[in-house]
Amino acid sequence: MTHSQETPDQSQKAEPLPETREPLKAYQRLSEKIQDAIEKGGLKVGDKLPPERTLAETFGVSRNSVREAIRTLSEQGILKSRHGDGTYICGSDLAPLTAALLNAVDTEGKSFDHIMEFRLVIEPSIARIATARHSAEQLHQLKIIVCDQQLKLLHGENDGELDAQFHTLLAAATGNPVFVDIVSHLNELFSHNRADDVRLKRRMEEAINEHLMIIDALERKDADACSDAMARHLHAVAEKHFLAQSRERGSAC
Known about the structure:
Arc Repressor Mutant, subunit A, Four Helix Bundle (Hemerythrin (Met), subunit A)
């Protein structure tokens, strides 16, 4: 008696083995959540990420994991961290343009006049754009910065860092990360001049009033007034700089 040998149906394919995937680490999960929020519009270019502590508490991870996630996304050009200011959402395709602009405003071989002329072109335009795009929270933060400046003035302390924060936050209010990069770089270039400038109590008072005029125009959504207020502020900065230089030359004679 012969037994027929059964052969498998050639039309049937073997079930593929299930793929095994290593569980994601905490920082990788957080990176994915941030990218997902960007893709879905919850986070937009120019938005500032919450502080490390807030992110850690919100997503139930350690602050080390938050730092690692930020580092990873920064390397991919998705985030941009700014010392003393925070971390912002940016577009990776903007990196070459931003780098070129930053090189263009480098102080090497350029005078104070050259840099101020650039600021007088770019920052009033930033103020104009921010008038239409700023959020209520950003306006509130600008007011807090000016209040802190007033406290510094009362205590006779240097408010240079607060002044830089004001200009950077106004740039962030445009929603354009290129503006944020440029203004942050300009703040670094002018940190020396700003430190000298704020030693003068009268100039500190004037700068605070100029910032208040910018805030007032933002609140009224008056783009022309906001742009003009920024231009007057920068002209005053330039004027005080040249007066200080004149005094130094006079004392050296």
